Amino acid sequence: MTPLLAVEDYTLGYRVAGAVRPVLKRLSLAVAPGEVLGLVGESGSGKSSLAAAIMRALPRNAREEGGRIALEGQDLRGLPERALRPIRGRRIGMVFQDPSAALNPTLTIGRQVREVLRLHRGLNPAAAQAEALDILGHVGLRDPAAILRRYPHQVSGGEKQRVLIATAFATRPELLILDEPTTALDVITGARILELFATLLRETGAGALYISHDLALVAHVSDRIAVLRSGRLVEQGAARQIFVAPQHAYTRELADAVPRPERRLTQSTPGPALLELDGIGVTYGRKRLFGPAPAPTVREVSFSVREGEILGVVGESGSGKSTLARALTGLVPHADRLRLRGAVVGRMGRDYRRAVQVVFQHPDASLNPRHTVGSQIARPLRLFGGDVREVPRLLEQVRLPADYARRYPHQLSGGEKQRVAIARAFAARPALVICDEITAPLDVSVQATVIELLLELHRLHGTAYLFITHDLNLVRQIAHRIAVMQAGRLMDLQSDTAIAAGEGAPYTRALIDASPRLDLGDRP
Amino acid sequence: MIETFRRLGRTPQGVLGLLLLLIVGLACLLGPMVAPFDPEMIDFMGRYAAPSTRHWLGGDQLGRDVLSRLLWGARTTVPLALLATLGGTIVGAVIGTASAFWGGRVDEAIMRTVDAVMAIPGLLLALLIVGTVGAGSLNAALAVAIAFVPSMARITRSVALSVRRLDYVGAALARGEGAGWIVLAEMLPNVVAPIVVETTIRVAFAVMLFATLSFLGLGAQPPAADWGLMAAEARRTLHQAPWTMIGPAGAIALTAIGFNLLGDGLRDALNPRDER
Amino acid sequence: MSLRWLLRRLGLVLYTMLVVSVIVFGITQVLPADAATTLLGENATAEALAAVRTRLGLDQPAAVQYWHWLSGVVTGDFGTSMRTGQPVGPVLMLALGRSLLVAACALLLVVVLAVPLGVVAALRRGGAIDLGAGLLSYVGVSLPEFVTGTLLLMLLADWLGWLPATGYVALTDDPADAVRHLVLPVLTVSLVLMAHISRMVRSETVDVLHSDYIRAARLKGLPPGRIVVGHVLRNAMLPVVTVLALDVGYLLGGIIVVEEIFAIPGIGRAVITAITSRDLPMLQAAALIMAATYAVANLLADMALSVLDPRIRYD
Questions:
Q1: Is A414 on the interface with B (CB under 8 A)?
Q2: In this predicted complex, what is the ipTM?
């Protein structure tokens, strides 16, 4: 039986500054008709490049050196541009990561949907409109007519992704390429979108190539999985089996790095209350002369963080968790509703600053590009009375060579920059470190090392963490207690044992159910 | 600094720009020494002399050597343009950075006023100032400097705003750093780079604006060897001696192109991209 | 475009004109040590100076002088020219009309030539058109108008004799001749603008071409022609509207020079004459009117943008 998609011995490189950087090396894989093949790999593994190669939409500096990419036996590589157009978008559909980026912001959604339908299904405008209404209803959107009239910025991410999925399926493709389609969406929305995929794939009998860095997700969605590393195929096998009984060391490494709530990593016991929040509220924006007052971003949040406690704060985007972090570091004004070790914090003075530090999400933006690494770590030492000769030791503590002190941030990788940010936060031995989604932009294996590092520092210094993340599985591994936020409110605050025992508010349980877990069988 | 120069040398614009400006710079420094003739030496025999081995660029309507006048004129035109740009930039940068740092209503009020001043075209503003305080090279330079302030304030503000939003400023605030440290140590080094690029390109504009003022009779006054003035005087004798126009026009163009190229080259050189 | 937004924008225009009026008045009447001396010269008699001061109202405090002038302007009375003794308003309005004709033709030329040039340069990056346009643009922004104007005059009027050198002919008198007289000034003043706009359009178009949604459109199988016309152009043009409006300021400056070179009796020429003859009311009014033109142009651009760009609906 001819495979739906067959990649045979395919090699790809990019021409950068005179040399060719290899991206895919003699890659061979196949998707059977009606099958979902999951493609996993970390950043730089080449998975997105493979998608571009299949769609024949490689950048100008791409250099292909041998191999076939065949759709139902027909080699796509030899085809001229004219012959490729009926394939792109019609026989092979694609769904992207960020639905906002895939839609033209100055055209209505309806115009963009009808455009595709008219092109690939040859419909006249009236028929296209009717069909558009039909397919949007089919993917579960209420009031398709209104959505078609709107512009992309007026519609939510989840709705836009449904529209794009509907459009992709509407051309009755044989193969679908899905490139991280739920990464930009909330966990709960993402889970529903995945259900939608499964339904539509079953209905149409199309095959799919599901690309993602999220192993748990891919394992749930795919029939078979292929693991990519630095452009090479490392292993492929049935989705159920491949992580339970991996053949290759890298696959095992990857699987082990994925957070599993069953695997508890923290064993410490917290002390008395360190930082108490009493009804903190934050509202952005001023009340304008004509118009309603802006809604608060954080409402009446009260809880306390204990000495040496790891308190996880989870919530979807827009839940207010980052704003809360900013309030606690004084970046955003709020009334005197804080107590540090029992004493009211009026103005955040030296003692407070020394005790409460923060690490931000984006390593590229959190280090000043014009200062050396060493000077940035030394700064808190200078401010809070430490010894600047400690800088080499601090670097080693975060597993970076001491001579990195002379380097500039642009000479470091993302993970290394994040470690520098951590070293800087720990320099003055704070009592509490606020971690604002610090592992979100990192690969899963890099994330695992950063978490390991954080826990080691926790064991060494007894530092408390306010760990903000959207990854429930991760936080269940490390937190003593978990706070759940939604729309600026604190919905729930439970200990990890309670969560594990099945307790928690309905919203909390919904979040947990929507977070896919990697099943490793009986492996510890 | 050395690192920047090295990077600059790798871009074609940087190399070309530096080369052109080197020539201009040499003319400023050594011009009077290498000039074959006295720029004010009138020679009725040599009026409208075509370019020859004696007068490389010909003679003007009073028989003065065009090349010598250009070499002498570099000293009035270029340094004054540089000074005017620097003056306008510094004042504009202070206003812009302060406005960005304060933010909120103060920022809005300052920027609306800056926008209002920008409603007066630059040349018109310069003309108003020169027309009132009197013609002359220094006054023209002052007028150019003042005319540059609003746009430099706008540009600095937008750069400063984008820097202010970045997390390392947030980290500094979270450390309890004072306003002085944040503005000077965290923001300024990152604001300086784009401003340097913009300023370099502005010098080209200043050279042209200055020349235009001289052309309109409100900048340098005769018998100065200012390039703009030479071009104005050349207008009347365009038929007989086109080189009297081409000489100064070429000099102005060369200088402006040089600064434009240098600015483009600096834009790439000052941007530390991923070097891993 | 809501009424509230429009009112706010109009309020801004008013604030702008207020600030401009203060600056213009401040520089011309308040700044000089003694406007009367500047007017009559160093050797004027004390009586003559005193007479001029009273006539100009210079013996009154600055704020009062400003108020008199401003209240006049608001009611349409721009004062009387010190040079001709005629009311300033009507003369300037006529002059403005002529200048606006040149400006409008220049803008039209820029839009018709520079915009497509920029788009083509972006679509065929690295090609002959791109490099050629780039080179020309570099030269274009490095030559002041008086140089290009004089060179063009030299070439097209003196040597080739295709066009008249200087002067102005009203459209109503002789359309063909009027157009012939307009060619050189319009060409001169639009060159710098064309260089700037074509580079801008090119860089905007390149940005749009690299954007994710254009990539997505390609991957949906849309043919390139469709993508360029239906998607790219629309998005790339939006910032161009803003830049064109900002460039009106530069255009007005260029018009001053061009009117001087080609002897066109427009508002720019009026400014120069007013400066050299120390005609204060004329100068103040002309400056005010030029600034008003810029403010109105920007308002129109903002209005156009709020209609064209769905992301800016309510300010």
A1: no
A2: 0.85
B132 and C31 within 8 Å at the Cβ level: the answer is yes
Contact residues, chain C, for B131 at CB < 8 Å: 28, 275, 283
What is the C-alpha separation between A165 and A178, in angstroms, rounded? 10
CATH number at residue B175: 1.10.3720.10
Give domain status of residue B142, yes or no.
Answer: yes
In chain B, which residue's Cα lies nearest the Cα of C248? B121
> Rounded to the nearest 10 degrees, how much is the dihedral formed by the CA atoms of A354, A360, A365, A366?
20
pLDDT in tens, A197-231: 889 998 999 999 999 888 888 988 899 999 999 98
User: Subunits with at least 3 CB pairs below 8 A relative to chain B?
Assistant: A, C
Report the SS3 class of residue A523: coil
Q: Evaluate if pTM is beyond 0.90.
A: no
Structure tokens at A185: 């969406």
**What's the whole-number mean pLDDT along residues A334-361?**
83
Residue type, A43: S
A neighbours by CB contacts (3+ pairs under 8 Å): B, C
A411 in B contact zone (CB under 8 Å): yes
What 3-state DSSP class applies to A228?
Answer: strand
- In sequence order, the 6+-apart residues with CB closer than 8 A to the CB of C221 are A85, A86, A87, A88, A89, A90, A116, A119, A120
Q: Which of A330, A349, A371 is nearest residue B174 as measured by Cβ atoms?
A: A330
Q: Report if residue B19 sits inside a domain.
A: no
State whether B116 and C18 contact (CB < 8 Å).
yes
Distance, in angstroms, between A161 CA and closest chain C CA? 13
Identify the closest residue of chain B to C31 by CA–CA distance.
B132
H helices present in A6-86, as ranges: 47-54, 81-84
Residue A38 has pLDDT above 50, yes or no: yes
CA C146, distance to chain mean position in Å, is: 16
How many angstroms separate the Cα of A169 from the Cα of each of A196, A220, B140?
Answer: 11, 21, 68
Is residue B129 situated within a structural domain? yes
The total domain count for chain B is: 1
Kindly list the structural domains of chain A, giving each domain's residue range(s) and its CATH number in brackets, ordered by start. 5-256 (3.40.50.300), 305-514 (3.40.50.300)
A115: nearest CA in chain C? C222
